[in-house]
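Exercise 7b. Backbone tokens:
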């Protein structure tokens, strides 16, 4: 399988994917093309050797793997514009678009080429994404290749398409939710005496360490919490107050509101 990759839609996620792809040398920048109608903001990628264009058909002709990274309402127009260039015997289409199902894509392109959906998050730019994949008509070789590609940029799992909306909430929106948790820690940290920059460092590194404990120990959060909570100590006093104020409940309600938005209103 040849490995030229085109990214259509050089916005937040599209540029993060381009950065992630070229970061660790998995693919040469010369084998990546990214498009946007106004290519001005793509200059930093161009300076690093990535091909940039405002012509989606040029990108479709360039890439063997075509990643669609536009907003949901832009998908139909983009797919229709490259439909004639899509080649069933060559191209693999990968959509990262929220709430657009594989059947929707087939109904627009009317060609039986392999279609994947990928749900990464913006940490893909620093090779720390969580990416959920699903596909229809992908060969085992193509599935393996795409899993390997996204594995270069974090962790990857293949799931059923019916879980992609849930993956979007937990894995992609989750980056923003984690940021708010960290921001609240910074705000609290300033109130109890730290400068903003020191509070930011302590909050971010502490959250990173907590996540690494779970990933490396394969443990449950409550097991790790038990190791921190001294009886009659300050940790449990803080945790219980947070729960009295609805901490876990508000997060769960936030996740389900996000899920409801995707499944009923996008
Ligand atoms: N931002 C995130 O964390 C994540 C976003 N997604 C999905 O990825 C998609 C892109 O999201 P963002 O990057 O955040 O949006 P964005 O608005 O930053 O990026 C979309 C880009 O597509 C460009 N574009 C629009 N029409 C175009 C066309 N005809 N040809 C070429 N480029 C065109 C826009 O100029 C823009 O730069 C969305 O569907 C979103 O649901 C999925 C996972 C995470
Ligand atoms: O907010 C959104 O709709 C997109 C989907 C996942 C992250 N951003």
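Sequence design result:
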């Amino acid at each position: 399988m040849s490995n030229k990759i085109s990214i259509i839609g050089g916005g937040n996620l599209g540029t993060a994917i381009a950065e992630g792809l070229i970061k660790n040398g998995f693919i040469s920048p010369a084998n990546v093309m990214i498009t946007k109608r106004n290519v001005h903001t793509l200059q930093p990628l161009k300076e690093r050797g990535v091909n940039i264009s405002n012509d989606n058909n040029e990108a479709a002709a360039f890439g063997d793997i075509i990643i669609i990274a536009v907003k949901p309402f832009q998908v139909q127009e983009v797919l229709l514009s490259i439909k004639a260039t899509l080649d069933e015997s060559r191209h693999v289409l990968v959509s990262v678009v929220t709430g657009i199902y594989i059947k929707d894509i087939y109904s627009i392109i009317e060609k039986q080429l392999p279609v994947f959906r990928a749900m990464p998050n913006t940490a893909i730019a620093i090779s720390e994404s969580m990416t959920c994949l699903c596909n229809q008509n992908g060969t085992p070789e193509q599935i393996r290749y795409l899993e390997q590609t996204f594995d270069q940029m974090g962790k990857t799992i293949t799931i059923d398409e019916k879980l992609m909306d849930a993956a979007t909430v937990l894995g992609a929106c989750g980056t923003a939710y984690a940021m708010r948790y960290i921001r609240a820690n910074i705000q609290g940290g300033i109130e109890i005496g730290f400068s903003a920059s020191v509070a930011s460092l302590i909050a971010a590194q502490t959250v990173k360490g907590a996540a690494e404990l779970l990933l490396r120990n394969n443990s449950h959060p409550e097991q790790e919490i038990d190791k921190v909570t001294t009886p009659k100590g300050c940790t449990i006093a803080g945790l219980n107050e947070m729960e009295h104020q609805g901490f876990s409940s508000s997060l769960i309600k936030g996740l389900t509101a996000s899920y409801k938005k995707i499944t009923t209103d996008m």
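Instructor comment: Residues 174-265 form a domain with the ProC C-terminal domain-like fold fold (CATH 1.10.3730.10). The chain has a mean pLDDT of 96.
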